[in-house]
Design goal:
Number of domains: 1
Subcellular location: Cell membrane
CATH class: Mainly Alpha
EC number: 2.7.1.-
Enzyme class: transferase
Main location: membrane
CATH architecture: Orthogonal Bundle
Number of helices: 4
Bound molecules: adenosine-5'-triphosphate
CATH topology: Helix Hairpins
Pfam family, one: DAGK_prokar
Length: about 120
């Protein structure tokens, strides 16, 4: 039983190590984390509803998850194909495309949620 909890503890430790490594090494990841902080602050400032918090949390999670997968795919591609290879390029472009789709989705959700609050604030 002891070793069961130790294994679970280590799994969490390795997962946090992965998140930490992505935040430290990826400039885009830093940008995503900063944007997420901005969104959280804006959420408190405009006192958004519970449903809106859920949508914002989902959007933040989606983008950060996509960026971590992108980093993992880039790292593996560099390991498997350090030399130029069209398939390696295509793999990286697909992973980057997934991040872009996630980021555009999050931006649309952010606009739909915050725009009415900003307009109401400017009109008040
Ligand atoms: N081994 C390779 N073979 C062919 N094309 C590659 C290879 N490595 C990278 N490329 C091409 O160059 C682009 C940029 O590669 P890079 O390794 O800088 O990835 P990146 O997605 O820009 O990384 P980062 O997000 O860290 O800036 C890729 O999207 C891909 O089109």
């Amino acid at each position: 039983m002891d070793s069961y909890f130790k294994k679970r503890y280590n799994s969490f430790r390795f997962a946090f190590k992965g998140i930490n490594s992505a935040v430290r090494s990826e400039p885009h990841m830093k940008l995503h984390v900063l944007s997420a902080l901005g969104v959280i602050i804006a959420g408190f400032v405009f006192d958004v509803t519970k449903t809106e918090w859920c949508l914002l949390a989902g959007s933040i999670g989606l983008v950060i998850t996509a960026e971590i997968f992108n980093t993992a795919i880039e790292t593996l591609t560099n390991l498997v194909s350090p030399q130029h290879n069209p398939l390696a390029g295509k793999t990286k472009d697909l992973a980057a495309g997934a991040v872009l789709v996630a980021a555009i989705t999050a931006a649309i959700i952010g606009l739909v949620i915050f725009l009415p609050y900003v307009i109401a604030y400017l009109q008040s």
